[in-house]
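Researcher: We're reviewing a set of sequences before deciding which ones to prioritize for further study. For each one, I'd like a predicted 3D structure that I can look through quickly. This is Immunity protein PlnI. If possible, include the structure in token form so it fits the rest of the review sheet.
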Amino acid sequence: MFTPFLSFLQLDFWADIVLYKVLSLVIILGLNLLLLRQKIIFRTSFGWPSWQKFVFWDIVGCLVAWQIFTNRNFLDILQASVIGTIAAVPEEYLYRGVIFGGLLRAFYLANRGGTKRNFLYCMLLSSLAFSLAHLSNLPSQGAVATVGQMIQVSGMGMLLAALYVRYGTLLMPIFVHFMIDCLVTLIHGPYPSKLNGVSDEATLITVSLIWATIYLAISMWVLWHCHDEEGFMARLAGQAIK
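Model: Here's the predicted structure for Immunity protein PlnI, in token form for your review sheet.
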């Protein structure tokens, strides 16, 4: 949508990608507030038991990040943080907040209730949309890398949707998305490449399938341990933005 405009401005890589993401978020926010009016749940209702698990995994993530940071300088960390932020915030707002939340609301109102099957349908549809959106990377990184990325993010989308339901706040998938993109950027660098650091096309697809399977397995575990799906869907269903 913004490609002709950004091409006209002739910005460098960082200015181009930041401006693109900011404009995307502003338009998504505007469309949701004015037309879709889909409620986005940010307020957390975490009790201490939930926070214990959150803090534990946060520490694990920091330890992993520290191992990578020791081989990186401050600029690398800053660039990875920028990539993580500008990817996580608008994408989670759109795909988990608006699309996934809207699908859940529609299923809830149509069926007068919620089941794990309905959650799975909505997770699959929103993850498919999330995956297809990455086709936009085709010109910059090539077909094989793009297909591999789409496979990975389809599983990642399932996990992020499950986290939204499990914790009842969009802040959790935003945080996890940020951590994933930040770590990937630290490992492979911020600039797109044909095979993203993998020397063999078959290996890239295989690795992508493995990661998608891991994400999917974790998402099913998270969803299985959700105990208030009905309450979450009810919160979304009563949600005209006032």
